[in-house]
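Example record

The entry below shows one chain as it appears in the dataset: sequence first, then structure tokens.
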Amino acid sequence: MKGPLFYSKILLFGEYGIIKDSKGLSIPYNFFKGALKSTDDPSEEAKKSNESLRKFVAYLAELSRNEPSLVTFDLQALEHDVADGMYFDSSIPQGYGVGSSGALVAAIYETYAQDKITVLENLTREKLLKLKQIFARMESFFHGKSSGLDPLNSYLSLPILINSQDNIESTSIPSQNTEGKGAVFLLDSGITGETAPMVQIFMEKMKSEGFRSMLKNQFIKHTDACVEDFVNGNIKSLFGNIKQLSHVVLDNFKPMIPAKFHQLWKQGIDTNEYYLKLCGSGGGGYILGFTQDIHKAKSTLKDYNLEVVYNF
């Protein structure tokens, strides 16, 4: 047995801000993917995945019972397949901010949800919000609190524009210029990040009046501008806004940036060779980078593992 493939995602803009109604932009990233599989000869990895699926299935059974109007699953088939050794075979690194649990949630929904909203039907805003709500409840098993966006992105495999918490739409982004020198890239921090503790730190900081004001007047303002610029292809303005955003994050989200990257982050802002920002909740995993000259950025960052995601 082998299920359909689900891809990782990258939240280009909106981490933390979307909790407080900023705009956001999330794009599928086909470099990493995962699928449900079963085998007669499971590896240690497969056994571990199957074990965590068992716990997830118990959670989904409860969700089906408690909120049948939201989502129900073919639990008989799901429980049977998991008892049979089904696992999630995935190349998506966990704790890297590229949606490993999101792809799993999308795969389970696609295969076992009853009366599911399919990708092929006319996806009205209501349907997208319903999907997002279902996915948020499913994914909260992994993170404690989820926006549902990662699984939604994985499920639809389309860029998603978040206008506010209850206004999302699939969108198109300017097609890549493969010859272009400008690029979005992933920088491997070499450390696994955990979402829940980072979100905890954020919620703690939100108790401070000064932090809330910075979030609204600086972080969200620049995030919204970046989203508009990216979707509309205003590259010059985009880089001005990303620089501001990178600065705000360095000043106010230090705990979310691994300590050994503080200097590198500042160096990008000072030299304008590249700008770094959080990819997901931070704390490790990938860091997102934006540059107007990928060759120069690669040479400056030659000691790090860089993966180009999009070319301008």
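Notes for this example: The chain has a mean pLDDT of 93. The chain has two domains: 6-170, 183-311.
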